[in-house]
Design brief:
Radius of gyration: 14 Å
Order of helices and strands: EEHEEE
Helix content: under 10%
Shape: globular
Number of strands: 5
Number of domains: 1
Strand content: 25-35%
Structural class: mainly beta
Strand order of the largest sheet: 3-4-5
Largest sheet: 3 strands, antiparallel
Length: 87
């Protein structure tokens, strides 16, 4: 499958198996729009934050609230092109 600069992709970046932390990486032009739709934390949404920002919050389940029992505590890191790993 060929990827181009207009694609937004997501991939698990941690090794398989049990772990105390998981890393999911999202890259592409719609990344911050997607983060805005699922991430809840204090202050402005991810798309309004500057590059190299770390945010603490929760990823809410589809249709759920950040207080839902299955919401995951999250650290979100923002890198903006061309300074991210995928450029």
């Amino acid at each position: 499958m060929e990827q181009n600069d207009s694609d937004t992709i997501a991939a698990i970046s941690t090794a398989s198996g049990e772990a105390g932390i998981a890393i999911v990486r999202v890259s592409g032009p719609d990344s911050l729009r997607i983060a805005d739709s699922v991430f809840r934390g204090a202050g402005p949404p991810p798309a309004e934050r500057p590059a190299r920002t770390f945010m603490h919050g929760y990823v809410r389940p589809p249709g759920g609230s950040p207080e839902a029992a299955d919401a995951d505590e999250t650290i979100l890191l923002i890198y903006r092109a061309p300074h991210g790993y995928t450029r």
